[in-house]
Amino acid sequence: MGKRAVAIVWAQWRSMRNHFPRSSKAGAVFTGLLTTFWYGIFAYLGVLAAILLANPEEVHFIHQVFPAALLLCFLYWQLIPVLMASMGSSLEIRKLLVYPIPTGELFALEVLLRISTGIEMLLLIVGAAVGLLRNPKIPHWGPSALGVFVIFNLFCSAGVRDLLVRLMSRRRVREVVALFFVLAAALPQMLLLSGSRARLQRLFAADASPFLPWTATARLAEGDFQWKTVAVLFLWTALAYIFGRWQFERGLRFDAAEAAAKGASAGRGASRMEWWYRLPSAVFPDPLGALVEKEFRFLSRAPRFRLVFLMGFSFGLLIWAPMAFGRESARHSVMGDNYLALVSVYALLLLSDALFWNAFGFDRGAVQVYYLAPVKMSTVLAGKNIAAVALVLVEIVAIALVCALLRLPLTVLQVVEAFAVTAVVTLFILSIGNLSSFYTPRAVNPTRSFRTAAGGRMQAMLMVAFPAALIPVALAYLARYAFDAEWAFFAVLLGGATLGALVYSYSMASAVEAADQRKEQIIRALSQGEGPVES
Amino acid sequence: MFTSSAISVHNLRKLYGDKPAVDGLDLEVPRGCFFGFLGPNGAGKTTTIRMLMGLAPPTSGTIELLGLPMPEHALEVKGKIGLVPDESLLFDHLTGGEFCEFVGRMYGLEKPVARERAGELLGLFELAGDSRKLIGDYSKGMRKRIAMAAALIHRPELFLLDEPFEGVDAVGARLMKEILLDQVRHGATVFLTSHVLEVVERLCDRVAIIQDGRLVLAGTMAELRSGSETLEDVFVRVVGADGPAESLDWL
Q1: What residues contact B250, with CB distance under 8 A and at least 6 apart?
Q2: Do B85 and A102 touch (CB under 8 A)?
Q3: Contact, B173 vs B188, CB < 8 A?
C-alpha cells in the first residue's frame, strides 16, 4: 500500500483515538459492551464452525452444507447493509479528492473499508478456515479459497455501495432506486411467495451449479481441486473487481451538488404536502405547533427518513409475508395471525434510527437554536416525540392499507392489535430514545439515505434496546397464550401502556435534566464532523 | 522561465439541472499574480473554484493549471497546488498539528519532514498553544488559519483560496496577507475569492468580477479603478446593485 494510503489510515486512527476519550464515558462503555456482545455472538459461532469443520468425520456433512453456508455469508454481506440501510465505513472521497492520491490507492483503501459491513461474516469465515486447516482430511491449500471468496465479497460490496451512494444522491429517483434495491433484497422471499421454492432450494443444494461462486469456493475449500472450479472462482472475483472499480471511478467523477440540484425545486409536490405540514399548527399552540411542523417538514425532506419510511410498508411486508402466509399450514400460524403487528413492529425498528435513538443527530444545527430560543427543552422534546408518533401512525396506516390492497387475510381485531402493540412499544422506545439522544448524541447527515455508521454498533443497540422495549408486548402475547383469551392480551397490554407512560414521564424529566447538565458535550458532539473515513 | 498562465480557463460551463452556475467563463491568470475573483452571492465563484480544485467536473470547457490540462494531469497539478477550501474539507477529529502533518504526507512529504513543518507552521500561525485542541473545537478564524497553514506545507506554486480571511481577526489576517504577498514575491500565484473588497483592493494586482456565472469585468487593479472610483464602487456598479434599497415599514 502506498505512502499516502498509510497516512490516511494513520489519520483515521488518530481521529478515532481523539474522539473516544472526549465523548461521554458511560456512552462509550455502553457502546463498547453492546459491540462486544454483538460481535461476541459471531465470534462464538466462528469457534463452533472451527470445531465442526475440524472434525474429519464430518467431511460428508461439510460437503452438503458448505455451499449453502457460503451463499448465506454472501447474502448477509451484500444484503444486510441494504436491509438495515447502513453502508458501513467509507472514505471521505470529497475531502481526499483535492490531494494528489492515485485512484488505485483510494480504491484499495475503499475495498478494505468494506470489511466494516461484513465483520460478522469475516469472523465466521475465519472460524471455518481454521477448522478446515485443522481437518486432516482436507489439504492445507483448501482454506485459501475462502480468502478469495472474501476478496470477491469485498469487491462486490464496494461496487454496490458506490452505486447506491450515487443513485441515492439524485433527487426524485432515489426513492425509486431504494424501492428497487429493497425489492431485490427481498427477492428470495418473493420467489418463495410466487411458488418458486424449488428454484430457490436449488441455489442452496449441495449439488448446486459449480459455476456459482459459493459452490466453487466450497468445493475448493474442501480440497476438491479442479482447474475449472479455480477458473470459475477467479472469474467471479475478476468480474467483482471490474464492477467495484467501475462504480468507484464513476463515484470519483460524480458531483453530488449537481445531482442534488437536479429537480431541486419544491414544485407542486411541496404545495400538495402543505396541508400536512400545517396540520400541527392547527392542533397545538405555538411553540409546540411550530416545533412539530418543523419536524414534519424536515423529516419529510430527509432522504434517510424517506427511505426507512418507504421500506417499512414495502420491504417489511415482503420480508415477513412468506413466513406468515408461505405455506398453507402457516396461514393460521402464530406468524400469520399476528402478521400486521409483526410488520408494524419491524417498521418501528426501521424508523427508530431516524426518529428515536438520536433525535437531535439529524438537525444538529438546530440544537444550538433550541438552547438559545426562549423554549423549554421539554417542549422541544415533546415536539419531536409528537412528530415521531404521528409519523409512526401514518406508517402503520400505510401498512394496513397495503395489506388490505394485497387482500391479505386481516380482521378488524388484528388492525386494532397492531395499533395497540405499536403504541406500547413506541412509548418504551421514546423513553429510551429521549435519554440516548442526550447521553449519546451523534452527528448524522440526513441527506444520506444509507447510514454510514459501522453496522455492528447500530445492530448492537437494536439487539438490546429494542428487545427491552418489546418485553411488555411479549408478556401480553404470553398472557393470550396462557389464558387463551383476548381480554388477557389487552389487559396486559393496558398494563404495559400504563407502565410505559410512567417510564416515559420519568425519562422525559431525566432527559431534560441531562440536556441542561450536558449542554456543552451535546453541542460539541453534534457539531463534529469525521476524519478521512466516515464511520 | 514559464510562459504559460497559472490558470487558463476557456468557455467553462457548469450546469446544475437546467440552471447554469458557471456559464462560458474565460479566464487567464498570469503566473506570479495576486488574483482576486469577485462576485455577489450565488454568482458562481465557489463553483468555479471547486472545478479548479477538481472537486466538481465541469459540464463543458477546458481548464489548464500551471500549463497542464485538467483532469488529464490532475495528479501532477494537485501536487503543486495549495488549497484553502471551504471549512467542510477539514477533519474535525484531528488536532491542528495532526491535520498539517496529514496534509504534508498527502503531498508526498516524508513523515518526519511533515511533522517538523507542521510544528513550525503552527508556531507561525500562532496555533502552537492550541496544538492539542481538535479542529472541531476551533473557532471559525482558527479553522481558516489552520487551513492556510496546511496549504503552505508543501511550498505550492499556485494557491486556490476560498474566502481565506473570513472570520480571521485583524492580527491573523495581516499575518496571512504578509505570507501570501511573500509567496507571490517568490513566484507563486494566488487566486482568491473574497467579499472583503478592501482586502482585495490592497492585495490583488488583477481582479475579475463574475455575475450569474458570466465574467462581467476583468483587468488590472489600475485599469478598474480609473478615476476616483474605489473597487467597491466598481463592483456595485458592475453587478447592478446601485439602485435604491427597499425598506420594510414594520422594521
Answers
A1: none
A2: no
A3: no
Cis check for the bond before A100: say yes or no (omega within 30 of 0). Answer: no
Report chain B residues whose CB lies below 8 A from the CB of A261.
16-17, 19
Find chain A residues with C-beta within 8 A of B134's C-beta: 18, 22, 528
Size of the A and B interface in Cβ pairs below 8 Å: 104
* Stated length of chain A: 535
pLDDT tens digits along A249-294: 888 877 766 666 665 554 555 567 788 888 888 888 888 888 899 8
Mind listing the pLDDT tens digit for each residue in A142-164?
889 999 999 999 999 888 888 87
Mean pLDDT score, A366-393:
86
The alpha carbon dihedral of B116, B122, B128, B133 has a sign of negative
β-sheet with B158-162: strand ranges across: B81-84, B158-162, B189-193, B34-38, B206-211, B214-220
**CA B62, B63, B66: angle at the middle one, nearest 5?**
145
**At residue A483, does pLDDT exceed 80?**
yes
CB contact under 8 A, A255 and B94: no
Q: Do A18 and B57 touch (CB under 8 A)?
A: no
User: Which residues fall within 8 angstroms of residue A332, CB to CB, at 6 or more apart?
Assistant: none
Give the C-alpha separation, A489 to A477, whole Å: 6
Q: Which residues sit opposite B7 in a β-bridge?
A: B29, B65
Residue pair A317/A344 in contact by the 8 Å Cβ criterion: no
In the 8-state DSSP scheme, what is residue A451? B
Query: How confident is the model at residue A179, as a pLDDT?
Result: 66
> Are B91 and A95 within 8 A, CB to CB?
yes
A261 interfaces chain B, CB cutoff of 8 Å: yes
Say how many residues make up chain B.
Answer: 251
